[in-house]
Specification:
Blueprint (H helix, E strand, L loop, with lengths): L5 E8 L4 H14 L3 E8 L7 E9 L14 E4 L4 H4 L11 E5 L14 E5 L1 H8 L6 H12 L4 H11 L2 H21 L4
Parallel strand pairs: 1-4, 4-5, 5-6
Antiparallel strand pairs: 1-3, 2-3
Helix pairs in contact: 1-5, 3-4, 3-6, 4-6, 5-6
């Protein structure tokens, strides 16, 4: 079996659920029969401090343990981080960025074959979950934009992680994130 390692870098602030996002993504890949490795990286461990979480996934066990410097995909949970950091640093030639933000968000110029999708994840989360935590919306958008994981696998992972109203809200948020991207791609 040929190896095809994919790397995902998540940019967020501490307390915004980036570690949960990485864990959910990793578990969804696992459900697809892949070998994921998800891990965080903290600077100052205080609420609101910029931090990263990473997911590495391959068709064989992942042994590499370093941070991700040349991601295939970038998920930006907090778009204000784009002002102080180059969140797109090292993004591969055909890289895809999923950014939580409003439609009028200014995205830096990417390379010609790279794509960026701006998703109003916090707005969707407010409607579905009742809190501005757009992580599951962003993962749904990721599934649609990359075709790396199936929506069904993602929803199963969310069902496993949450219960009650939180489960219902997060499932709906993921579905809406997925549909948002599919509409942008003209698939709906």
């Amino acid at each position: 079996m040929r190896s095809f390692m994919k790397e995902i870098r998540i940019h967020a602030r501490a307390g915004q659920g980036a570690i949960t996002t990485a864990a959910l993504l990793g578990y969804a890949y696992f459900k697809e029969g892949m070998y994921p490795y998800a891990f965080p990286n903290f600077g100052a461990a205080r609420m609101g401090a910029p931090m990263n979480a990473f997911v590495r996934v391959d068709s064989k066990p992942v042994r590499l343990r370093s941070q991700i410097y040349e991601p295939d995909y970038v998920i930006i949970v907090d778009s204000t981080l784009m002002r102080g950091y180059n969140c797109f640093s090292g993004l591969k030639e055909y890289g895809i960025a999923i950014i939580n933000g409003k439609e009028d968000l200014e995205v830096p110029q990417l390379k010609p074959k790279q794509k960026a999708f701006v998703v109003p994840a916090n707005e969707i989360a407010m409607k579905t979950i009742g809190r501005p935590l757009g992580n599951t919306t962003l993962i749904g958008a990721f599934a649609a934009a990359t075709s790396e994981i199936k929506l069904d696998a993602l929803l199963e992972v969310i069902k496993n992680r949450f219960s009650g109203k939180a489960q219902e809200g997060n499932i709906e948020a993921a579905k809406q994130g997925y549909e948002f991207i599919k509409k942008q791609q003209g698939a709906y």
